[in-house]
Amino acid sequence: MSRRTLSLFGLLLVALVTANAANVTLNKPVTLNGSFPVFTYPGNLCGVNPPQPAASTVVDGIFLPEGACFQSGIYWAAANQTNTIDVDLGGRFLISSATVQADDNDTYTLQYRDVNGVYHDWWTVPPSGTFGMITRPNSADTSQQQALPSVIATGIRILAPAASGDGFYAVSEIAVFGVPVLPAVLSKAFAPSTIFLGGTSQLTLTVANPNATLPLSALAFTDTLPAGLVVATPAGLSTNCPGAVTAVAGTNLISLSGGSLAVNASCTITVTVFATIAGPKVNTTSTITSDLAVPGAAASATLGVYLTADSPFQVSYAANPAAGESFVNIINDGANGAPLLGPGFGGAVGNICANVYTFSPDEQLISCCSCLITPNAVVNLGVNRDLTIKTLTGVVPSSVTVKLLATFAGDGGSGTSCTNSAASTAATVATGMVAYGTTAHLLGPTTNIVEHRFTPSTLSAGERASIAGRCAAILGNGSGFGICRSCQAGALGGDKQ
Questions:
Q1: Overall number of domains in the chain
Q2: Strand pairing class (229-231; 238-239)
Q3: What is the per-residue pLDDT across 89-122, written as a single tens digit (0 to 9) for each?
Q4: The last residue of a domain, from among 180, 207, 230
Q5: Do 466 and 415 share a structural domain?
Q6: Radius of gyration of the chain (CA)
Q7: HSE toward the beta carbon, residue 179, CA cutoff 13 A
Q8: In the prediction, which pLDDT does 340 show?
Q9: Is residue 497 part of a domain?
Q10: Buried-most residue among 87, 129, 264, 493 (CB within 10 A)?
């Protein structure tokens, strides 16, 4: 963007920056370019060979007393006319005003560095006063700022133009005021976050402009869906984002170009995606770019795609077990199995551990245990018989929540032990677990039998750490309370086999 375009742009902002402006040069890195030798001013007005102040003092926010000796600032003479004092802002800022304290009888040029690293004249700082260091624009009020065209800057430079003043120059303070130019923010989410193979989910991408004073335009990003995800047919595209949005059914690309957002505004893009391959789908976008800000961070979200309802983490409940019994039947459907090996077909792999966690209605973990299940085997647990026989609290609640987490027994399911696996977060989660809950309640002279499949769910890292940690405490306390009985072979239902 040219200097002229930036200046016109700044004029159109109509002082939006003023209310939130801060000194953006304060304590920023300073570089002295050229030679700044120590010398004595004719007549020794400032002493003999006064030392040069530290470069950092020109952005420390401290103004010297008006009329202080010019060698109290960073000083140089006509022999070093090309000297510059550069301040790196460390980012992009929308700047609109400045205050400078410098030697009284010289003209200085204050420049800004644009986003391409090119310097442009911004303010011709005029001579002022009669001797020493004088603040511009108002020596009587160092807080007053010189209003200037609003521009985007990454750095500030001050220099003395040729043949200015008496040939002796000094600068003691540079204060430039503005606000940071924040990058656009891109976020995304799948709803639902877990689906079965061949199912769909709504992907929502949200674009936000966090700047309170600066509109953003030329917004653009691309989102390439991972293998196994495509834009559904129909695409279900819905958006209120200005610009061109692309999401063609059957492809793996979603994009925005030429977008624009007013200050503090946001917009969304919603697309239906279709799962063609099972497994976790980590979807990460490109960065989001715009005309004025640095690129914003990429956005990422994960969609879990399961072959069937055998997700690694499943939940259900049992109500009023005192009226009869509720059973949990768990199957290893062989999803991870390999051919049976050896004489007698022994040594099958694909073994999983069904890690069982039982919760009371007040969210206490009252029991936990693990069951080894070989491929194609089925085992069962009774809520009364196994899960609440010796609760941690010593109380049998009127209803329980049962959570199951499948992990591999050993490497790739080659192990034969699930000891303490319910208390571990290190084991690899595994598909292949299918669970049913069966209740058999006595209602007068009859038995009411209900069977339902456990519900697949998403297990967060925090929840896994929580349940594993609480189970580890149960297993380690030595009392035996809270350890449920291990699974029994076979499935139990209404007739209890």
A1: 3
A2: unpaired
A3: 999 999 999 999 999 989 999 999 999 999 999 9
A4: 180
A5: yes
A6: 36
A7: 18
A8: 56
A9: no
A10: 87
